[in-house]
Amino acid sequence: MTKETIAAEIAAGKAVLGIEFGSTRIKAVLIDSENEPVAGGAFDWENSLVDGIWTYSLEEIHNGISTAFAELKKDVQSKYGVKLTKLRSLGISAMMHGYLAFGKDGTLLVPFRTWRNTITGEASQKLSALFGYP
Fold first, then answer.
1. pTM higher than 0.70 for the full model?
2. Going by C-beta distance under 8 Å and a sequence separation of 6 or more, which residues neighbour residue 35?
3. What CATH number has the domain bearing residue 58?
4. How many folded domains does the chain comprise?
5. N or C terminus of the chain: which is more exposed, having fewer CB within 10 Å?
């Protein structure tokens, strides 16, 4: 696909944004209609041990996704001379062994748990009982 075709797709809102919350960085990648990466941005981060739990703060999550997306938008502008204003779709993934649990009102119920924690026994028992898992 040519640079001009990619620019036209981006301007028309046909590109797809993928965001991944990894354990060492947050990545934002824009792909074209041929599923090829055309732009990207990232934010490096490291979890912290807070009150015995390996976690990331909500502030760092917000800062990280904002920074990664801002870098991606700059990359689009630099490479293709167009401003990213709309998308065809968006996908978000997170580290396999981490989770964020929110209440109905949107508040975080427990600190962001990461792959480094080994304290899931009690939660596993309660969730297994709740969902009828043997």
1. yes
2. none
3. 3.30.420.40
4. 1
5. C
